Every structure is written in structure tokens, then in C-alpha cells.
Queue: 2 jobs
Job 1
Amino acid sequence: MEATQAMVENGAISADLRRELVSVADQYSISPVEALVLARRVDPAVVARAIATCAHVPLWLKWPPMAISRATRHRLPAELAYEHRVVPLEQDADGDLTVAMADPLDDEACREVEFFAGSRIIRLTVPVTLASGGVFAFYGLETPFLSMWRKLAEIGDHPYALAAST
């Protein structure tokens, strides 16, 4: 299940808004959650808190993260981190990988991350801003969301300014 669908089911957003977000997301190659943030609908931390509640996954707002070892970072290919807005944070003694994810409800993303990591993952929910920023900081890849976020900041507009009807 995708995060905005869970938010509809929990009454956080309407089904009509979700359809609009999905349409915008498809048009701009971003996720519906990223569209929600860019559409000036709600603060990224508020969205992350709602997702964390729906997913029963801890919310993680510490940024920048602790030092991430090269070995941990290389547990996930850059393309996978980019596609799913996921950043590996640490590996525990059992080999499980703790990851920061914008959408820990995305079952496909979780399966792919576990497959490539070769172990179980421990999910933490982070705002889309931190997930995209982490992908850029640790893999050098700028997501479409981060590019839009930066452009809005450059023109002096509040980072939530992309109208969902665009």
C-alpha cells in the first residue's frame, strides 16, 4: 500500500485529493507524497508523522544522519536509493540494515530494498525532504522532487508552492 492511500483510509486526506496527487506525481515523475508536499498542502514533517503512524514505523527527524560507512552505503545501489527515496543508515550485529524511507508503506520498495541489501530491513520514516536530500548527499543523485524544491527556494517562493492543479 502506498502512503497516500493509507492517508485516505485514515481520513487524513480525501480520495479526490489523492487522485489529484497521483495525476501530478505521474506528470512530474515524483511520488504522490512528494506532490502533497510540493502542493503546499502540508509540511513535510507532518506528512512523515502521518505516514509513520499509518505504517507503525518510527519517525526519524535527525539530520544529517550519523556517519554512514561506505560499506553500509554500498549495501544499496544508487539507482534503488533514488527510485524509492531510501537511505541506508546502519547495519546491526545481525546484518539487518536500518534504512530511512519517505514511504515505508511501499511494499514493493521494501521488498526490493531487502533483496538488494541481502538482509532484513528496519524501516524508519523520514520526511520526503530528508529522503531526497540523503539520496543527493550520499549518492550524488538529485531527485525530481529535490530539483523542484530547490527551484522554488531560488525564486523566493515558499517550498510548498507548486499547485496540485499544475
Job 2
Amino acid sequence: MNSIAREESHPVIRWLMTEARKRADSSEFLDAFARELRASGVDVSRITTGVPILHPQIFSFSGLWELGKGTTERLYRTEPRIAAILSNSPIGIAYEGRGPVRCDLAARARESEFSILEDLRRDGYTDYIVHSVPFADGSFDLVVSINTIHNLERADCVRALAEIERVGRRHRYVQVDSWLNESQREKFERWQLTARTYSDPAGWRRLFAEAAYRGDYYWTVTE
């Protein structure tokens, strides 16, 4: 039996590839995932999921499951406090696509360790593991972004377009702020409040090419 077959024969992997796909509610999925792990012999007591969001006001969406308490969901807004926390957090490492990170909570505390470890020790946890789990290439039949990515700085805008291209399997559509003449440009610059990356259509096409974005697109024009 090869390594892929062995992995797919594991009950949790098999569940993730079959029944888990039918669960659309994130809280229900996290509850069921915890049950599957414990039923397979993984003595897990806490699971945190986090999805970083490329948005000027929302930083991430997170779910927290705790044994005996169930699941709660949290929405973190973009603010200096969150950035400071993630700068010394294994979650920040996972959000950057790095890791995994494993911490032995039974070991003596170190001066330079992640700040969350003190809280976990106090709550009686003994092991802490963080994995980055990106969406697979071509995960979605349709990816749509309307009047969103222009609210990002240019580098993040390119990164978002590249990610849309990567995870979209069939259809991708992006709509962004732009103008078709000088009058529309003047009106746009007078009224826009949140856009950080904007251009005429030619400039957007150059940015699409830089991101290797090949999906459909159109413009939101102020008239």
C-alpha cells in the first residue's frame, strides 16, 4: 500500500474527503471534526481555525472548539492590537503559509516563547500544534470579487488576484473601480473613500498580467 492509499484509509482523512464536504455550516463542521478526531484516538481538547481575509477592515474569521463547551465564532477587525498579537503568535506563522509549529507545553517556559503558551499551560493543555492548510489549487468552480480588491494596497491586490486564479477551477470574475475618461476619473477621486489601488483599464490590465490573472473582469465607473 503506497503512502497516499495509507493516508486515505485513515478514518479522519476518509471523513474529510466524503461526509465533511456536505457540511456547509462552519460551526457544525468544527464540532464534527473534533468528534472524528477523538473517535479515532486523538485526545484533542481545543481546536482553533482561522481564515485570513484580504479586506481593509476585516482581518480574519476564526472558530474555536473546546471540549465540553462547543464552538464559538469570532471575527477579528484590522487594528494595531491584532497585528501586535500575531507578531508573536504561531497563528501568524500559519497565516503566512509557513509551519507547522509544535510546542511542548509540559516543558519549562522560555523567555522568548509565544505569549499564548502561558494561557494554554494555565488551562491544563500539554501539546500545541499549528498547521497552515491552504485551499487546494482549483478548489472552487466559481470565484467572484466585486468592488473589493481595489481596497487593498497594490502588493496585496496582486496577491489576491493570484490567489483567485489559483483556487478557481472554471470561472473567475473580478470587478474593480476604474474610469473611461478624465471626467469619470475626477468624479471617482472626489467620491472614493476606501480604494487604495486604482487605475484606468490599461493600468488594471497590466496589474492582471502581473498577477497572471486570466479570469473575466469589468469596471465600476463613477458617472
